[in-house]
């Protein structure tokens, strides 16, 4: 399994997941840069993602939804802040309604995704910082650790394909 560590800190409002992949940084970057590849790993395995809008450019808005086994759709959005291909991108990540408008009652996180080469492999660090400790606590209760970990763990299968 790629995920090697998961930690959260209510005081700093952060959730950090570390993973290692048997692939170069550029290959891992491609997964996030290509919406069709990203669809295969974004969200838990039983909630496949569909990216409607996708561009890893500063200021771009990325929209997507995940579909439950029962057919229910859960929408989300990113607002891309910075891009330093192929090693890092930052973005705000939020929950959205069916028309991709932000759901104000749910937390937004600021995310830093970093990819670092280590002996022919890639170490990925995914850090999410929430505006409030309550926001972090809410997503923890919603299962973000299990959902994000199972999503990241799908990357090995994509790399093997």
Automatic annotation (TrEMBL):
| Occurrences of domain Activator of Hsp90 ATPase homologue 1/2-like C-terminal (ranges) | 22-159
Instruction: State the source organism's domain of life.
Output: Bacteria
What InterPro entries does this protein map onto? Answer: ASHA1/2-like_C, START-like_dom_sf
User: In this record, what's one Pfam family?
Assistant: AHSA1
Family note? Belongs to the AHA1 family.
Indicate what this protein is called per its UniProt record. SRPBCC domain-containing protein
């Amino acid at each position: 399994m790629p995920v090697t560590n998961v930690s959260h800190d209510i005081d700093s409002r952060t959730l950090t997941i570390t993973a290692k992949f048997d692939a170069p940084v550029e290959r891992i970057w491609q997964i996030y840069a290509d919406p069709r590849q990203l669809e295969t790993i974004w969200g838990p395995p039983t909630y496949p993602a569909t990216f409607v809008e996708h561009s890893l450019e500063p200021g771009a808005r990325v929209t997507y939804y995940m579909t439950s086994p029962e057919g229910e759709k859960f929408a989300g959005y990113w607002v891309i802040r910075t891009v330093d291909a192929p090693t890092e991108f930052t973005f705000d990540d939020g929950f959205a309604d069916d028309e991709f408008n932000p759901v104000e009652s749910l937390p937004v996180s600021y995310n830093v995704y970093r990819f670092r080469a280590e002996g022919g492999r890639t170490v990925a660090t995914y850090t999410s910082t929430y505006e409030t400790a309550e926001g972090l606590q809410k997503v923890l209760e919603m299962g973000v650790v299990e959902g994000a970990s199972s999503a990241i763990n799908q990357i090995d299968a994509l790399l093997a394909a």
